[in-house]
Write a structure and sequence with these properties.
The complex is a heterodimer. Chain A is mainly α. Chain A contains 2 helices and no strands. Chain A starts with a helix and ends in an 11-residue tail after the last helix. By secondary structure, chain B is mainly α. Chain B folds into 2 domains: 97 residues; 145 residues. Chain B has 9 helices and no strands. In chain B, helix 4 runs antiparallel to helix 5 and helix 6 runs antiparallel to helix 7. Chain B starts with a helix and ends in a 12-residue tail after the last helix. Classes of the chains: A mainly alpha, B mainly alpha.
């Protein structure tokens, strides 16, 4: 009985430690890069740098690449006002 | 220590770890929720905006077709609703940009007060919303629509400039860290050499990475030269000429796009190096040949392949 209890506690501890390392994924793509007359011609560059999530942690500047991707995605946000004139 | 005491201590420790993990999970769940609030709001105002825009454009078509009092009244109502929803959506956009500009990593980045500029536009929009709610003629609403377009045009140019500065800083950080990355790569190569391992692949990749990062750094300087002049914007980051500002931003966009495209190659080189490093250090289960092995062995680099037309296009070429 005591052995079963110890095993259960170890399982709980193991799952708890596993939970501590996880971070929810964060979406970065938003809006549609529709141009207005006030915005520069935009072509998405987010595809230019596509990191492989499972690699590149030993020498990585992967976080910088992810930041750049995120900024590029955000910069394409736009409000496509109507061209119709009253 | 008695067996029973050990057991109690173990139980207490496990319980404490479990409780701590719950806490860290809650904190981790909250952080992205806060960060994504503005984006969620932008999406939400966007849906309302698109719906109101469609109704406005339809009402305008009906008025142009029928030109009677009923269609005119409907047009006034739909125009007012469209303008209000548009103002809400633009404010939501500005809030999102402002939150990005105020991130801790962007503190002190701007040579002007970006938040203040954004707040000024938000105040203009809020004043305009009050006017829209009071206006009841097509002439007044036409003027409101024109004013909204003017405010958004200026705000969009200025926030694009803000984004370019943030992106320039992010690219600069990537470049700055590459020196350290090169040094670490060389250290590991030396370590493997002292252990008698074949480091020829690693040396080729490391050399390619260093050369490409020099190219990235040189390209980045062109963007920085443009940003130093900031044609069309004054020193406070406020647009003074829409046409000049638009042309300037297009040049910066093109330059940064090119830099990021070039960065793709050393980024991949780093991934290849990491794979090779893990194989040599016995930290990988991969037993097959890594990708690009042919390029590494025959000495050609991705840069050379790009010039030969076998890689993605460079500056001046269509995508």
């Amino acid at each position: 009985m005591k052995t079963i209890y110890i095993v259960l506690m170890l399982i709980i501890a193991a799952s708890a430690l596993g939970c501590m390392g996880k971070k929810p994924s964060e979406g970065t793509t938003i809006g549609t890069p529709a141009g207005t007359s006030a915005s520069p011609t935009e072509t998405s560059v987010s595809g230019a740098v596509t990191p492989t999530p499972s690699e590149n942690t030993d020498f990585g500047n992967q976080s910088d690449i992810n930041t750049i991707d995120s900024v590029v995605n955000d910069s394409s946000m736009d409000v496509p006002l109507s061209d119709a004139n009253i | 220590m008695k067996h029973g005491q050990r057991f109690n201590i173990l139980t207490s420790l496990v319980a404490a770890v479990f409780i701590l993990s719950l806490f860290s999970g809650i904190v981790a769940a909250q952080m992205p929720a806060e960060k994504n609030d503005n984006k969620a709001k932008f999406e939400s105002t966007g849906k309302l905006f698109e719906g109101a825009k469609a109704q406005f454009e339809n009402a305008l078509k009906q008025f142009n077709a029928k030109n009677n009092s009923i269609s005119k009244a409907d047009l006034v109502e739909k125009t007012r609703d469209y303008l209000e929803k548009a103002i809400d959506h633009v404010i939501s956009y500005l809030d999102t940009v402002k939150s990005r500009a105020e991130l801790p990593e962007n503190k002190g980045l701007f040579p002007f007060d970006a938040s203040k500029n954004i707040d000024a536009h938000i105040a203009e929009l809020q004043q305009l919303r009050t006017k829209v709610q009071q206006d009841s003629t097509t002439e007044d609403l036409r003027a409101d629509n024109k004013q909204l377009k003017d405010i958004y045009a200026r705000a969009r140019l200025e926030t694009r400039y803000d984004f370019d500065i943030i992106l320039d800083n992010s690219i600069g950080k990537f470049i700055a860290k590459s020196d350290n990355v090169s040094a670490r790569m060389n250290t590991q190569i030396q370590n493997f050499k002292t252990k008698g391992k074949d480091t020829s692949n690693l040396e080729t990749i490391s050399a390619n990475f260093t050369n490409l990062m020099q190219e990235v750094a040189a390209d980045q300087k062109k963007t920085e030269a443009l940003l130093a002049v900031h044609t069309g914007f004054d020193n406070s980051g406020i647009v003074k000429n829409n046409t000049d500002a638009l042309a300037f931003l297009k040049q910066v966009d093109d330059s940064q796009r090119e830099t990021i495209k070039i960065m793709r190659t050393p980024s991949r080189q780093l991934q290849v190096f990491t794979r090779e490093y893990r194989i040599l250090s016995g930290r990988s289960n991969v037993t097959g040949q890594p990708r690009n092995q042919g390029n590494l062995r025959n000495g050609t680099t991705n840069r050379e392949n790009r010039r030969n037309g076998t890689n993605p296009p460079t500056r001046g070429q269509a995508q």
